């Protein structure tokens, strides 16, 4: 029932009518300074994060995780998150799931992530279908939440699929992200462009409010990080 109610209220899409503004408490034309009269960047970001957190959606594009890799994302606030990485080689791919603050990373993908940090491990064939579980210490929407430190970048404002989009930039060290969010309330994340250590990526988001089926790995398919490391060490 909770899913049905959520999808019914989100089916109008992002920023497509005045009713959606009332539901989230956001205004299509808030007062104050900012890009296009949208108020402060932090308040806009909070409104977008709320919408994305409470609405099912999908995303697809490239990723900075691995050179030449692509990713797909499925999110449902009741069922959790699924992220599929397709690398240039079979070893650099796999699924990551998250629900209730626990992530489940496919063994081969987990090994590829460790390799990025200089830790080389070999995954035995018997563990190739295992998912490594770990407590994230935060909600699963952290995978797509925009930092409230972001600032408007009006020179990058654009139109995406017929929707006016505001650009918001977030940077920290060698990492830089530009988020394009719908200009009208309640607001959705429409596109993200990122740069990490010279790698660039672009992902687009859509399917807002459409039903998703996301099935978490079963207990028989999962191992804790300690168990996995022990098994890998055993050969």
Description:
With 235 residues, this protein is of the alpha+beta class. Helices cover 21% and strands 33% of the residues. The protein contains 5 helices and 13 strands. It has helices spanning 2-10, 18-24, 41-54, 107-116, 225-234; strands spanning 57-62, 70-76, 80-86, 94-99, 102-106, 131-135, 151-152, 158-160, 163-172, 175-182, 189-196, 199-206, 222-224. Strands 1, 2, 3, 4, 5, 6, 7, 8, 9, 10, 11, 12 and 13 form a 13-stranded mixed β-sheet that branches. A hairpin with a 3-residue loop joins strand 2 and strand 3. The chain is globular. 32% of the residues are buried. The model is unreliable at 1-13 and 15-37 (pLDDT under 50).
Topology:
Blueprint: H1 2-10, H2 18-24, H3 41-54, E1 57-62, E2 70-76, E3 80-86, E4 94-99, E5 102-106, H4 107-116, E6 131-135, E7 151-152, E8 158-160, E9 163-172, E10 175-182, E11 189-196, E12 199-206, E13 222-224, H5 225-234
Structural class: alpha+beta
| Overall geometry | globular
Number of strands: 13
Question: How far apart are the termini?
Answer: 47 Å
Radius of gyration: 19 Å
Number of helices: 5
Instruction: Indicate the mean pLDDT.
Output: 81
The helicity comes to: 10-25%
Biggest sheet character: 13 strands, mixed
Quaternary? single chain
Percent of residues in beta strands?
Answer: 25-35%
Low-confidence stretches: 1-13, 15-37
- Secondary-structure element series: HHHEEEEEHEEEEEEEEH
Protein traits:
235 residues; alpha+beta
Q: Can you summarize this structure?
A:
This protein has 235 residues and is α+β, with helices and mostly antiparallel strands.
